[in-house]
Amino acid sequence: MVRAMQRVEEIAAFALGRVNLSRVPVNRLSTLARYGRLSRVQTIERAPEPRRTALLTAVVRQLEAQAVDDALDLFTVLMANRLISPARRASNRERLAMLPQLEKAARILAKASKILAKELVLVAEHEADLYVAALWAAVEEAVPRTAVSGAVATAEALVPEDDGSAEAAMGEKPALRYNTVRPFLSLRVLLLGVSPA
User: Fold this and answer.
1) Domain that residue 153 falls in
2) Cβ–Cβ under 8 Å, residues 31 and 91
3) Is 194 contained in some domain?
4) Per the structure, how many domains does the chain have?
């Protein structure tokens, strides 16, 4: 990564990236760059002055763009391999570790829900009054009330209400891997002409 950034820095030292070429069509600039890169040095030396400068400027601009793209691609690969993949694996391990507790809570809640649904259907069919104490008595025949309360608490603790809980958990892991990110912090800022936000 350091070598890629050094390459960008070496090419950017020519300061041709700051030359305003907005009046030159993009396809013309790429044609000049391609011609300049395929030409021999002697051919470029013998070119008349405005053409020689145009060829060299186009070549350096293209090389700078390629160097920046290569550095960004390398940075993306490094971040994926050293930061995001380990964070994803750690998040998956944690979620798998919670799975037995969640399964137990789900079984208890499924039993209680099944009994509640059955009792509510009976109340609706007979158009009888609904008695909470009778419902709890029916549920407690299969599952103790404390087990139901514990299962609800476990489910609430292990399954957050937002839909993106897995993504949120995975997103928190890279922040904890400062030692992995630290080598990249020493790299210089690459100005891409974007807003500071």
Assistant:
1) 2-185
2) no
3) no
4) 1
